[in-house]
Amino acid sequence: MKAITITQPWATLIALGEKKFETRSWATKHRGEIAIHAGKKIDKKACASDPIRSTLSEHGYTVDNLPTGAVVAMCQLEDCWEVIGEINFPVEGTAILNDSTGTKIYGITPDNNELYFGDYSKGRFAWEIDVVKWMVNPIPAKGQQGLWNWDYEGQGGKESE
């Protein structure tokens, strides 16, 4: 299975279903199942700022108890959108995304926290994530850069229901 290593707190925000797009400087053609691996690095400044701090708190997380060095969720990578619009963020801001086929446009507005959970600068990419299953017990794993192969078989992982 493909996996991606993501710095905390963003890996946990995905696992909790709070973050629907993972923003990257590069596009991917991969679609389908993907494991979310929480890297060992925690962005403590991001964890202290709202709405990240308050969202984590709603789920019982703080900077001190975020899982690291482990797979925290499995999900479906649905599409890879290119950020094509400028953002006047956070006031009146909207990120304009173009899907991989170039036929659909999607706007992300400050009405929810999504704009705060990623870097929607023009020219970046937003990986659309769906069908998230967080791991009841995160599975220790060594992460890598880029997309990498993770062998889930025999790992003894248990997904939430």
Structure commentary:
The protein has three helices and eight strands, in the order E-H-E-E-H-H-E-E-E-E-E. With 161 residues, the protein is mainly beta.
Q: How can the largest sheet be summarized?
A: 8 strands, mixed
Secondary structure category = mainly beta
Q: Give me the number of helical elements.
A: 3
Approximate helicity band:
10-25%
Radius of gyration: 15 Å
What proportion strand? 35-45%
Which runs of at least 5 residues are low in confidence (pLDDT < 50)?
156-161
Say what oligomer this is: single chain
The strand count comes to 8
Mean pLDDT: 86
**What string gives the helices and strands in order?**
EHEEHHEEEEE
Inertia-based shape: globular
| Amino-to-carboxy terminus distance | 20 Å
Pfam family, one: ASCH
Protein name: ASCH domain-containing protein
Organism: Paenibacillus alvei (Bacillus alvei)
Domain ASCH: 5-79
Please give the structural blueprint.
Elements: E1 2-8, H1 10-15, E2 21-24, E3 32-42, H2 44-48, H3 52-58, E4 70-83, E5 95-98, E6 105-108, E7 125-140, E8 147-149
Parallel strand pairs: 1-3
Antiparallel strand pairs: 1-8, 2-7, 3-4, 4-5, 4-7, 5-6
